């Protein structure tokens, strides 16, 4: 009688080792390779953002312990006083700061990479000034919570179209795009001052908040519109970032690599316009965030993919930190976040101008 054969052992091949500088993330039968630098930078910035949020929710005229503040914000538990202070008074402001900073950081990263110029941001190419001018005009014409998002987005798109048309595009004309954007922004800035000077005093006071950049008393519908825009724009920006890696080279090389250069540029510019316009509709022209956040993200991640998400996280951290300084450094007097970023960002911009070489953004 033949002896029964022993069952064969099924040998499951182990996945190949991750290339140097990457980490393999596996879930079920799927795995993906992620660059180690952006992953570590994203985790670190997320931890810093949570810490800054906790401090922002706990610091003020009524002190709340950071853990109690996070518990009240996330779980909705705590004393009635903590719930009132955290969820009703401070959480909307923190929510607006995170959304505005993330939008400006992502928009700055996209525009810098698109133009190959570290100085090309929504601040410097006229998008913020265009959005501000249209938002102020909308508030003066009809001060409702619906007008600023729509008018600011229209203004940002108008400024982008003018800059793009007058400069002959971006691409190899990055510096021309920047210079023309400065001129377009100056024109819209003058238009804003003209509108305010001709408006009635009550309407001018209502619109003044859109000229300095502040997170105090922001419209919740405008914040909601910005958050919905981010839910669409951030994933789209991550997809577009893969094509932007090829645009770091010449157009000919990018075309050989299979990228459709012109549609990619249009999509990146439109995404930047939406992010910048909706951010201005919430907080006004908060300067320097779109300039500093991508630079901080690149220094943290090192060479590699375009750091769109890392720039968004860095922008949120910088915006909340600036707002925290403005609320506390001269309390009870409050300094608008736009003034804080201007004071801190001015010397940074001078340093960047003195150290920037004529080269494409790394």
TrEMBL record:
One of its GO terms (cellular component) is plasma membrane. Signal peptide: none annotated. The chain crosses the membrane at residues 39-60, 126-146, 152-170, 177-196, 222-245, 266-293, 337-354. One of its GO terms (biological process) is siderophore-iron import into cell. It is a multi-pass membrane protein. This is Iron chelate uptake ABC transporter family permease subunit. It is found in: Cell membrane. Keywords: Cell membrane, Membrane, Transmembrane, Transmembrane helix, Transport. It comes from the Bacteria. It comes from Streptomyces taklimakanensis. Coiled coil: none annotated. Its main location: membrane. Belongs to the binding-protein-dependent transport system permease family. FecCD subfamily. One of its GO terms (molecular function) is transmembrane transporter activity.
